[in-house]
Design a protein that fits this description.
With 155 residues, the protein is of the alpha+beta class. The chain contains 3 helices and 2 strands, in the order αααββ. Helix 1 packs antiparallel against helix 2. It is rod-shaped.
Length: 155
Amino acid sequence: MGAPFSGQKPAGRTSARLLSGIIAFVWRMNHLAWGRKSKFALLGLLLSGLFVLFIQSSTYRKSIKRARAAVSRQDLAVMRQAIKNYTTDKERPPQSLQDLLDKHYLRVIPADPLTGKKDWVPHFGNVVVGPGKTSFGIDDVHSSTNDEGIHNNDW
């Protein structure tokens, strides 16, 4: 999987530049003949800058998790639709996700954006394929992650 947002700078690049600028400024000010109050003001500025960097990195991580969860929901919707189409056309559910590839209902099995692997967990059960007719096979698929904060297996 490539970068989630191709137009963005890598995480921390602007934050590191800002932090190094603040440190250089404080270092220069320490070498000038400033009073004690000014040095405390600069220390306060440095701590404020560090606080802003901390909040910014936390927000960035949360937005990446939300983006990965959105991609995961989309991948699940596509695979579930492929399972439904296969079951309707063949009048039996697929026995593996590979069946969906072999019969061209999916081009590829996508990697789970939350794990980076193709480790989707198929759910097997009896599926109604016609009036009074059932067959055993895959009736759903979900992620292998257990992080309910980001990924809900009900998707």
